[in-house]
Amino acid sequence: MTETDINLILGLREQSLKAQQMALERYGNDVFAQVARMLPAVEDAEEVYQDVFIKVFKNIKLYDEEKSSVKTWIMRIAYNEAVSWLRHKRPTMLYFEDREGRSDELSDDVVEETLGHPNSETVQLIRAAMNHLPPDERAVITMFYYDEMSLKEIAYVTESIPSTVASKLSRTRKKLCKIINMLQS
User: Fold this and answer.
1) What is the pLDDT of residue 91?
2) What's residue 94's pLDDT?
3) Cβ neighbours of residue 36 under 8 Å, at least 6 residues apart?
4) Which pLDDT score is estimated for 97?
5) Neighbours of 30 (CB within 10 A)
């Protein structure tokens, strides 16, 4: 942990406005990006974003530097707040469901060919396909690819274990490929 991180944590624990502003500047964009990818509307993401930092400032005394970095701890709070919002307030939405289980039949080579080296057209298809995923699957994909979090960090955020995250990531990548194929046809 860097000296800057230590000073930030100490400042947050003392409820320093300067430390709170620093936390917002340092982690605000990442938090907003994560919740915005999970929630249906920008207004909802803004509401959850505020709730996240209220919880961070209120619960900083619970942060344990032995378990995770400050950023990962904050991202866990963001994930949990977004999931909580979805449980209590989300409108009913339909997502792609692979009833026949054919996504699992896709080989890793086919998945890598589709998602591995995307061009601008494929990036647009991936973004469109992501809208057909449930929020928890979309969150895992975005944490891994957009936020470049490790499986261990994602497991901490989602209160899971790395092997479960790896399996979910693999299944979700295959599901994305199937959705992309459906969007192209």
Assistant:
1) 53
2) 47
3) 42, 45
4) 58
5) 17
Check residue 15 and give left, alpha or beta (phi > 0: left; psi -120 to 50: alpha). left
Whether 177 and 115 have beta carbons less than 8 Å apart is answered as yes
Got the DSSP string for 103-165? GGGS-HHHHHHHHSS--HHHHHHHHHHHTTS-HHHHHHHHHHHTS---HHHHHHHHTS-HHHH
CA distance 78 to 33: 10
Q: Which segments in the chain show pLDDT lower than 50?
A: 94
**What tokens appear for 109 in the block?**
């080579």
Distance CA 140, CA 155 (A): 9
pLDDT of residue 159: 92
CB-count burial class (<10 Å; 0-12, 13-18, 19+) for 72: middle
Amino acid 111: pLDDT: 62
